[in-house]
Amino acid sequence: xxxxxxxxxxxxxxxxxxxxxxxxxxxxxxxxxxxxxxxxxxxxxxxxxxxxxxxxxxxxxxxxxxxxxxxxxxxxxxxxxxxxxxxxxxxxxxxxxxxxxxxxxxxxxxxxxxxxxxxxxxxxxx
Length: 126
What we know:
globular, 4-stranded mixed β-sheet, Spore Coat Polysaccharide Biosynthesis Protein SpsA, Chain A, 4 strands, alpha+beta, 21% strand
């Protein structure tokens, strides 16, 4: 487990930055903790996209809705993220869309993207 070193809770971009700092490989796979239906097939789709376009961020979009916390990020983008962070960037989506990127397009109602934020939703999803 990697923790960000920021006080309070500055948001998920701090976690992505900490993950990139700790990354020993060429890419960082980011998976949100509140999507219990994400499966290996979807993760492999993202990883395959990253392999075919190694210099690009691979993002998921369902319909027109972005899923910025389900992504593959080239570790070479660490300096850019560090600079953006130091300049006050806190939005993962804004930062990711400013990078060269590819899109894994899914249906708007893809059940793998169900967001579970309450205990009741987790019970329904399991």
